[in-house]
Every structure is written in C-alpha cells, then in structure tokens.
Design goal:
Length: about 100
Amino acid sequence: MLTKLTICNFKRFGEVEIELGSPVVFIGPNNSGKTSAMQALALWDIGLKRWNEKRSGKKSTPEKRPGVTVNRRDLVAIPIPDANLLWRGLHVRDVRRVNGQQRTS
C-alpha cells in the first residue's frame, strides 16, 4: 500500500509530498493540483509496469536497475494535448543527493 506520494518537477509542482491514508480523497479549488497529483500517480504506475515487464525473470541489485522508456502512446491514462505539459519548465531529469546517495528524479 502506498503511504506517501512525492512529486518532483511535474506540471505546476516543484516538489511536494502528499501523505496517503485510507481512504484518500483529494479536495480543493479549481487549479489546485488534484488532477495533476492523479496524473503523476498514473505516470508512476505506467513506469512501474514498464519496468516490471523489462525486468521480469531477471535479478539485479538496486544500483544496477536501468530505467525504462515511456512514450506518448503509453500516456492514454493521462489526457493532455502534449506530453511536454507534464514537466515543470520542461525539466524532466534532475540528479541530487539524499542521505549521501545519488537520486535521479
């Protein structure tokens, strides 16, 4: 079960953490990020499915896990006219250190 949703550089979000309980209800005024949070979660789900498909039957350590490609055809669950609208400032990748470990977001 997911307990927290962390969104970085997605649409209008710079970096935000949303604690998830049971059940989860997003409530807020128009243009406050409810749909964007759901789209970020849908994009994560698409990426996870592609990663699992690529890694099925293989064993690897976390340091050696390659990324996967998600293309526009994979984004049918995220109704937007242009995939560029998903990224804040069109910045899709960032490398930073968290607890001494390099993380790409």
